[in-house]
Design a protein that fits this description.
Blueprint (H helix, E strand, L loop, with lengths): L2 H23 L21 H15 L8 E2 L7 E2 L6 H21 L5 H6 L7 H5 L15
Antiparallel strand pairs: 1-2
Amino acid sequence: MTHRKKWLAGLAIVGIMSFASLSFRDAAPPKPHKPQNLKVLPKDIDHMALIKIMHDFCDALDFKCGDCHAKSTTKPGDLDFASDANPHKDVARNMMRMVKKINGKHFKVKGSFAENFVNNKYEVTCYSCHHGSEHPAKEAPAVKK
């Protein structure tokens, strides 16, 4: 390849890249997915706060996402996070209300569940009773003597 052909090829590549960068610069960034059907958590919850809360629930009860969220009817293998088909989801909502009520009444913690949970302001959490198990223990563990 001659020097002139190399120079023209390089110029063409630079031109294409410049045009492409200008074309995509004005493109709108993808909109973040907004959670739907939130009944206890705020509708405008920050995505990272939502994920932290959900992961904390999983850790506190030794659950996976599919233990509360229904399977998608349209996309095999996916979950339908907005669906209320799984009854565990409503149980979780009632537990969130209970945690908020206990902390408000007995520990004077005011404000939203999500903000208090994420910022560790609650004295009583899911883990307080569940200790990594779906059902809280009914008896204290035996004391070793």
